[in-house]
Amino acid sequence: MKSLSLGFTNQSKNFPDLPIQIDEVPLLALETFPTDSHTKTHLSPEIFLRRDSKGKFIPNLYLIRDDLLPFGFGTKWRKALGIIEYLKSNRIKQVLLWGAIHGNYLASFTYIFRCFEIEVETIAYTRDPKLKTYNEQLVRGHSHSIHCYANRKEAYAAWFEKKERYQGLALPEFGIHPGQILGLKEFWENLKKEMEICLKGKPTHKGQEESEPTEKGYGIDTTPPNIRQNPQGIDSILVMEIGSGATFLSALDVFQETSVLVLGVMVGEPKVEWIGKIESIQRQLGLKTIPIPSEQILEIPSQIPGNGQKTDLPIEPKKKSISFGKNHKTITEWIADFYRNTNILLEPVYSGITVYPLLREIYEMRDSAKNNPVENSQINSGKDLYAKQNQFLRRNISGELVPVFYLHQGGQIQHLDLILDKDSK
């Protein structure tokens, strides 16, 4: 794997610097998809890339490696450190948390707060008292006091009652608080610079002098209105999951006036329901209540194989959808294959659910380019750039596929068994 850049944030002189590392995903990752018999003559990714010098058929794909931060807590480090900055500024020394005991949120926040000598009181819940996870051990091991309930409703009621008389900071579920933005905003600003390096110095905010392409045939911007963030279009795409929504909304807040298109993938909640909460979450985070184009919020369909429809996620025949927190055999097997080819560990709740369909789009576009010379000639002539609408991929007004940056937010520590069992055999 090629490591392109290593930058450092400077959130506060009291906090450790958090690196920003961006890795280019090797084309070998495309070989994690099975090759059907009628496509055996397809060019290998390496050979195909040499014939794709202008990015017309395979986009550059980069991973922002927040998964490499300690314990795989990922972007939650940045959120938690922002809240710690708020706590220190207001001389608050204790926090009240609540959430799922097996979730990444409580595991990361209890550990990080405890490391900074903040007293942690935790109210948790689990629907399966027999389930034992590494996240649970972290929560129990780093909470100064903890009460665990049998369901979410009871846990919330206990938290709500206690927060009314709590002397410290009572954080709502997932830690939604303006302090998270303190930790994320500077991350985005530094990330802009690192993305520019990957794009060979091309600025993410284009100047007026670049508004009219000079190459013949590309004078008209054919970018669909729903992704036209500025008159000059986009030059990079930033992809991430939408869990609580804090990371996604803060990214939109920072990148809205740039040529970076931010796309969020729904995980665990229907898109239509989360859209109704956007304004409320923005207010809780202290962000501007800006409207979010629906097209920038992706909902990856998961359809039953064999029903005549395209299958976007590898699910078992009797499964109708990918459920939050559920591991499915086929997706976990694909994650193991992806790890062997790239040395990048995804997990089946967030990153695997996003990277699989993203790579599938690239894989299918590569194969389509090999088998459809008519379509290729249209792309080469600058026509019909959006004849086929993709979930993730976009072309610029020159017909080139826009580079994609995926933010790997971590969370893989609880899924090490996906690779350890296989490697030990």
Overview of the structural elements:
This protein has helices at residues 45-50, 76-89, 104-115, 134-142, 152-163, 178-198, 246-255, 271-275, 278-285, 329-342, 351-371, 373-380, 417-424; strands spanning 2-8, 19-24, 61-65, 94-100, 119-125, 145-149, 169-170, 236-242, 260-266, 297-298, 404-408. The two termini are 25 Å apart. It has two domains: 2-72 and 184-424, Rossmann fold, CATH 3.40.50; 93-167, 3-Layer(aba) Sandwich (Rossmann fold). It is globular, with a radius of gyration of 22 Å. A seven-stranded mixed sheet has the order 1-2-3-11-8-9-10, with helices on both faces. With 425 residues, the chain is an alpha/beta fold. Mean pLDDT is 78; it is low at 1-13, 35-43, 45-51, 203-232, 303-311, 315-324 and 376-388. The longest helix is centred in the middle third of the chain and has 21 residues, at 178-198. The protein has 13 helices and eleven strands. α3 (104-115) packs parallel to α4 and α6 (178-198) crosses α7.
Offer a few descriptive terms:
single chain, 425 residues, alpha/beta, Rossmann fold, 4-stranded parallel sheet, 13 helices, globular, disordered N terminus
Could you outline the blueprint of secondary structure elements for this entry?
Layout: E1 2-8, E2 19-24, H1 45-50, E3 61-65, H2 76-89, E4 94-100, H3 104-115, E5 119-125, H4 134-142, E6 145-149, H5 152-163, E7 169-170, H6 178-198, E8 236-242, H7 246-255, E9 260-266, H8 271-275, H9 278-285, E10 297-298, H10 329-342, H11 351-371, H12 373-380, E11 404-408, H13 417-424
Parallel strand pairs: 3-11, 4-5, 4-7, 5-6, 8-9, 8-11, 9-10
Antiparallel strand pairs: 1-2, 2-3
Helix pairs in contact: 2-3, 2-6, 3-4, 6-7
